[in-house]
Amino acid sequence: SPYGKIPENWLLSTLDSVSNLYTGNSINATEKKKYFSGVDGVNYIATKDVNFDSTINYDNGIRIPDRYLSKFKISYSNSVLLCLEGGSAGRKIGLLEQDVCFGNKLCSLSFYYGENKWLYYFLQSPQFLSDFQESKSGIIGGVSIKNLGNITISLPPQKEQKCTSSKVEKLFEKVNQLWK
Asked: How far is the C-alpha of 81 from the C-alpha of 102, rounded, in Å?
């Protein structure tokens, strides 16, 4: 295992076995301007809206009205969005605070059973980032959904996921206070 010896009660699996992962939809510039700019609907998130500090710009002016929703994939609140392609691949990541439609260079990930906040932190771990980099291919430098799904993940029980996520969050809060 790339993780060395893991506790007996942890599961070693692949991302596609323990999480739902799928990419979004692209919108061409003409359609974006004509049908999706300045209208009411579900916010549409593109790679540019996911920042390197993991914040997400929901209010970018692009929304998907109800009548077009059936043509778009939705990533639900508390899911993780991860950039799969280009210079931001593996580096742009965010935990959603609302349901959104999203671009085709982004992947939505959510555990079938588990704490998505733990998944969010795992996807920023050195081991995952190393595996992600090794899975990159092509001129643009991207990771296919298939290769992403084949990446190994070590999973503690859900109670441990929750506890670890909470501790990591508190540590980040302290770090952020030091930067102020």
From this structure: 9
